Amino acid sequence: MRNDAYEPITYETEVAAREVVDAAYKVHSGLGPGLLEGVYEVCLCYELGKRNISFKNQIVLPVIYDGLELDAGLRCDVIVNDSLIIEIKAVDKMIPVHEAQLLTYLKLTGIRLGLLINFNVPKIKDGIKRIVL
């Protein structure tokens, strides 16, 4: 187990998470539900850029297996400030595999905080789940 497992999330990461949630609200109010994930990702990244928030999107995450680093086709939607992962969905209902996917990304990157955001909801507050390792 990691030594920092019980350390609080840094202030800077918490501020970034609040900004991401605010940006998600803005995107959702502008577009509403019913579009593809990629549309929401592009618009959310645009909002983050407007706010001068450092991010990378569609990051390839290698899997370490049998001592080898393998490209298994895993792609993380957005990583903010190298300290927050955003996994974007546009689904009718969140299912456990969506949360498991974000947990896997957190473990593979060593990042402790993730936001699972489903834009296909009437109220975006019902589509945001925070996950901390």
Explained architecture:
The radius of gyration is 15 Å and the shape is globular. It contains 3 helices and 5 strands, in the order ααβββαββ. It has a single domain, classed as Endonuclease, Chain A, CATH 3.40.960. The relative contact order is 0.19. Helix content is 37%, strand content 31%. The mean pLDDT is 94. With 133 residues, the protein is α+β, with helices and mostly antiparallel strands. The protein has a 5-stranded mixed β-sheet, with helices on both faces.
In short:
The protein contains 3 helices and 5 strands, in the order ααβββαββ. It is of the alpha+beta class.
The CATH architecture is 3-Layer(aba) Sandwich
Stretches where pLDDT is under 50 for at least 5 consecutive residues are none
Number of domains: 1
Helix content: 25-40%
Strand tally: 5
From N to C, what is the helix and strand string?
A: HHEEEHEE
Oligomer: single chain
Describe this protein with a few key phrases:
single chain, 133 residues, Endonuclease, Chain A
What's the helix and strand layout?
Elements: H1 11-31, H2 37-50, E1 55-65, E2 68-80, E3 84-89, H3 96-109, E4 113-118, E5 128-132
Parallel strand pairs: 3-4
Antiparallel strand pairs: 1-2, 2-3, 4-5
Helix pairs in contact: 1-2
